[in-house]
Amino acid sequence: MARPDQFAVKRSTFLSLKRITLGEIPEDSLTRTAYLFWRGLAPEPTLPARTDFRPENIPRDALPWVFLMDVIRMPDGKLDYRYRLNGTSNVSLVARDPKRRLASEVFEKSDRQFMLDSFDVTVQEKCPTFWIGAIPHDRIEQINIWRGLFPLAGDRENVDQILGIAVPRPGDA
Q: Which of 34, 60, 68, 86 could pair covalently with 165 via S-S, beta carbons 3.0-4.6 A apart?
């Protein structure tokens, strides 16, 4: 597995996101719960596929915070991501539902590449990535989050979807 600092993600004007290791995620975090669910879908080093689970099998307490994105491979080699599913708590957290929209359309221009780069790392490395971040919020300026991105591969090798979770860190919910 690559070192967390190997792939630097540029800081956005409005957001912050820092890659961390699984060991830095608290034991009781829903991000760790989602990781254990994802890892239980297929034995290592195999990547799980979307067909390995149904949304109702996602742990009940994590489900409202989960999102699922399709990886869109552009003709020029760049990647984009289409939101397929967004948990209700995740939608409430960011005050919008990006379902069926491309990530490149959802994020403001100043934050777009910043966010796409963080998704790209998961696709390129073909392994889960973990992040600590801050996202803007209309009522309280920003919310600090734990985030996990988990690759899914229909052929067990090439990432075609990302299962993700973004949950507020204690004190921010």
A: 34
